[in-house]
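note to self: the first set is below, dont mix up w the second
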Amino acid sequence: MSQKQSFTVRRDGYPLRSYIARCAQLAMCLEVSASPKPGNIDRHDDYEDTRYEHFLASAISMYPVMEEAAESLHGAGELIKKAVKESVSWQNGGNTHFGAIILLVPLAMAAGKTFDQKDMFTIDELTKCAHNIVKNTDTSDAIEFYGCFDTAGVKVNPVDEFSLQDERATNELTEKNVSLYELMEIAKEYDLIANEWVSGFKRCADCAEIIIGGLQDRILPGKIDVDINDVVVYSFLKILSENEDTFITTKFDSKTALTVSSQAKSLLQNIYSKEVNFTDIKASIEKMDAELLEKKINPGSTADIVIAGIFIALLAGVRY
């Protein structure tokens, strides 16, 4: 499948903003429900302080912000901050969807702009529009974004420039007229979500292709059941196998993150090189899941990209 393949925009009788917001909500719910997803919360696995139900509450809470994003061309930073505030005000499990919000907001903005103008679109058009939107962010977006971290309780890497630990950072942003996109450029080498902004949401688009192809039995035909749960889990492992999860890197170190990616790659190699299908390796996935959960190693950045991929796939008309 090509990212230039055209999809028809669904018009279901409700305002376009409502359709886009529901796709965003469903994407978050489908990702957290998929199991077994090594190291992450799902319908069968909770953490001590954060549960599956916290993620569901977070996903449902963001509906009005995603509606607003679908009708906006500017103000990405403020929209991200609003979504984070809604997320934490509806549940007590802490940071659930911070990275996903950073991806979903500009993609929802792009969907609103793109679908308002035409009835057919390509994934390439959608992500290019989102990239143009984030490139046009300004200093006010950066300042609003900085206000999210305390609210969400997000752990960040220490940096020399515009450090979140420095109370003078927002003044420095204003003095140097730094946009939110420029902040993402600074962070792109050590943060997977920031890298998506700068690279034009490439991994999000790739993930959407995997999901669309998986549900049409075009990704490894016959080896993965045409089942939303298995397709999402496969997509998660595929993205994880090809990228260092920077959420793990921040929480532990790069070596740990790369080891986890290598584990995911080894699992998938069994499908690629042997006469087995996805169901045959479920036990191995569950074993990896148990090991990561015990060590509290959770590939959160990968989950965020998968959410964005599901969102794009739903916008493209995927049903299951």
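second set (the one i keep forgetting abt)
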Amino acid sequence: MLSVMDLFSGVGGLSHGFRNAGFKIVLSNEIDSDIAFSYQSNHIGVNMLNEDITKIDSSYFHPYKGNVDVIIGGPPCQGFSQKGHRNILEDDRNFLFRFFYNVVEYIRPTYFLIENVPNILTTNNGHFKKVIYDMFNEIGYNLDSAIINAFEYGVPQIRRRAFILGKYNGHISLPLGTSDRVTAIDAIEDLAFLDSGEGEEIQEYKFTPHSFYQSELRKGSTKLFNHVATKHSKLAIERMRMVPKGKGRESLPKEHHTKSIYSGTWGRIIEDQPSVTMTTRFDTPSSGRFTHPFLHRAITVREAARFQSFPDTFRFYGTKSSQMKQVGNAVPPKLALKIAEVIYRDMTIPENIVVSGKVD
């Protein structure tokens, strides 16, 4: 079976997509123990390295050298947003990116995939993009990159992220968008209508699915997990009641205009459009357009997971803040699947097969 190593995995949105495409995840790394627990609970049998991976001796990776087909991950790169033409490898904030590069250089997988913020490709007129290309070209990889909107790949969410796909001694392109388009209401209409403070971590489904997307994500699930509404203050509920469908802060009287700097604050998710980008604070109406389309509360973890395209069988563990971090920081599994399928097809065409850095 084709093998994958997932570095900086989070809860495993990328891993889930690659597993569904037929890959085997042989190693995953996540430094946060609560998130690592959620990953392990949903990816049974994967070797999880719950450590600061930068402190692991390189000898740990020796058994994987030449035995991993793809390395995937989203290494944090805060230094990419700075001004100037400083080499990205000289910025301490990009140390984790350097580590990802070093692991690829050491193990030499046939492919690698990086997910990151769009700035990694656009800042300083593409200077950092050129640096990245030069780095990997020098060790034999050809790259393709793009800023991809998850909505164009069957995910009911506007989520733009940069992806960089590399292949050793060969060429491969990121997939084009699909014709599938899923709206917010298509994603969550079958979930229980909860009021503020209602819901339980494990409950029964109350409604049958109303869309293909809902049926697809409910497949194999007998219980509804993580569908618990935040208990809002009376003032917050009063404000949400004043906001009609599809509207936001502009509908509130001036005395209710908070000082929030977030775009879409107090806004309702618009039913017939994709949701806005899920962040790690989607339970707070003042943090963006995260109010339910017609109920007077913010969306739940399960609703956010639906917008991210996680199946209902995928359960999130830990505190509410940890669950939101797991969902908000993840790569949508349906998008990961589309990219994984491109790699899988490329690997199974005989003339394209490369083994351990050498043409077979």
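remember for set 2: Residues 356-360 have pLDDT under 50 and may be disordered.
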